[in-house]
Amino acid sequence: MDPNALKEAGNDAVRAQDYAKAEELYTQAISNAADHGAELRAVLLYNRCVARLRRKNFDGALADADAALALKRDYAKALSAKGAAQMNLGRLEEAVETFKAG
Q: What confidence category does residue 83 fall into, taking pLDDT thresholds of 50, 70 and 90?
């Protein structure tokens, strides 16, 4: 399935506050986006990161933020989400450094 269509469906799920469904849809989109460029993959990883933050899966959110940043180093939204995940994991000093970097 087209990763952009899955992304839009994931966005609809977020608007409906169905974060489990959003995470599932973004995961499918990521799996289908291998040939669609780093920009789209970074956005999909960030979107799944946000869904995971909402579900309090902070380890998963941090992993997604790091993966998004590996694809797009200057991605401010991913930096912010990374800091939020670190903060929720009690890694406050790291979170401060991450927020400073953004």
A: very high
| Domains of the chain: total | 1
Helix H, strand E, coil C: the string for the chain is CCHHHHHHHHHHHHHCCCHHHHHHHHHHHHHCCCCCCHHHHHHHHHHHHHHHHHCCCHHHHHHHHHHHHHHCCCCHHHHHHHHHHHHHCCCHHHHHHHHHHC
Residue 46 belongs to domain with CATH number: 1.25.40.10
Beta-carbon contacts of residue 76 (< 8 Å; ≥ 6 apart): 102
Q: Where in the sequence is the domain holding 38, given as residue range(s)?
A: 3-101
Tokens 């990763």 belong to residue = 3
Determine if the pTM surpasses 0.85: yes
For 36, list phi and psi in degrees, rounded to 5: -115, 15
List, in order, residues 6 or more apart from 16 with CB less than 8 Å away.
none
